[in-house]
Amino acid sequence: MIDNHFVVPASLTGKRILLGVTGSIAAYKVAGWVREFTTRSAEVTVVMTKAAKRFVSAMTFGALSGNRVYGDMFVREPEELMAHITLSREADVLLIAPATAHTIARLACGMADDLLSAAVLAAKIPVVVCPAMNTAMYTHPATQHNIGRLCDLGYHVIPPECGELACGEEGAGRLPEWETVHEKLIALFCPQDLKGKNIVITAGPTREALDPARYLSNRSSGKMGYALARTAARRGAEVTLVSGPVNLAIPPGVETMQVTTARQMQARVLEKAESADIIVKAAAVSDFRPKNCHRQKIKKNQGISPIEVEENPDILATLGKRKDKGTMLVGFAAESSNHEAEGRRKLEQKKADLIVVNDILRPETGFDVDTNQVILVDAGGSKQLPLMSKEETANRIWDHILTL
Question: Any catalytic annotation for residue 167?
């Protein structure tokens, strides 16, 4: 059966962002965010406080957004007299970045003495706050109290990063990174149907050392497993990602455990398995490892000798034998032929609840590409999904898991 249904958003395309910029040196970074939003086909309208205009000009944000920049609540133009109300009604989300200690204090008190604070009070849309300030200001009990108050009021506060600040000091207070904010905004438009679920996902290849310079491995890029982790986190899950060696950014909000060998991966997965509601084995684990790892690099002039191998543990089968009834077990099968039959065999042999099968020979579904087309095989039958991006495929896999 082929199913073409897909509803979970994977981007901010078409979303309307009302961006509030306040008086912090980090305002220059947010100018870059506006460019990122427009590149992703989101519409941005900027509201600046008077202090913000001392750091970056309104002209800069206007040029980057392609829209008028607002700042003064008391204007002469009749169509703008109600901007503090209409701006939020025409947006999908209100993002305040950077949010200074002063702005956070005013919002915590419910003040409405400028256009931005008034727009926040009138907003019936999600409000996301990104603090950015000196470490001492951020950790001050008054600021922490105010941030707690914002959370109690239902605002979404993204904690600042730690690192070097504009003042030259080190500590918490850096504006959150773009990728973190981007993920949070997408999550706001995703169903939180995985909230409360503890999910363990494996991704990438494993490497088995032959000598200090060489190893046995496979072509897995980890992209599918990382897409599963990213989309699960967006949908509210607590995600642990056990990753082999890959060249991918860690998804924001995901606990990540880096491993190299199959036995290391097994140890980490079994460590987390008892508390997991769902375990997804998307990693391409090496089936074999060299029986002997040479302590010194093998020299070419030593000649060619056979490589003796021994079998690695089958992590999926081990989990199938010991899983609790309440834990769902999902495996992946990268196949070059007899795809559905191989998926059905692995489903029964490994005692899994779902096997996701993909064709490694097709250029658009093989290794290290951004698209996939999979067959979902479970006890009730099979379902072939259309060719989609790996993030879209990941969302469809979660949709199917929820039906099980």
Answer: yes
Q: What is the reported pLDDT for 1? A: 43
Q: Tell me the C-alpha distance between 135 and 330, whole Å.
A: 44
For residues 157 and 154, give the distance between their C-alpha atoms in angstroms, rounded to a whole number: 9
What is the pLDDT at residue 6? 44
Domain boundaries, the chain: 16-188, 198-403
- Domain 16-188 top-level CATH class: alpha beta
Residue that the structure tokens 């363990």 belong to: 200
The Cα 179–Cα 40 span in angstroms is 13
* 206 token code pair: 């494993």
Residues 6 or more apart from 295 whose CB is under 8 A from it? Answer: 211, 212
If we measure between CA atoms, which residue out of 276, 278, 385, 254 comes closest to residue 330?
Answer: 278
Segments of the chain scoring below 50 in pLDDT: 1-6
* pLDDT score recorded for residue 10: 66
User: How far apart, in whole angstroms, are the C-alpha atoms of residue 229 and residue 222?
Assistant: 11
CB 259 within 8 A of CB 206: yes
Question: Fold for domain 198-403?
Answer: Rossmann fold (3.40.50)
> Is 16-188's fold the same as 198-403's?
yes
Name the active-site residue from 162, 167, 190, 293. Answer: 167
Give pLDDT, residue 46: 97
Q: What confidence tens digit (pLDDT) does each residue in 298-351 have?
A: 888 877 788 899 999 999 999 999 877 789 999 999 999 999 999 999 999 999
First to last CA, the chain: 17
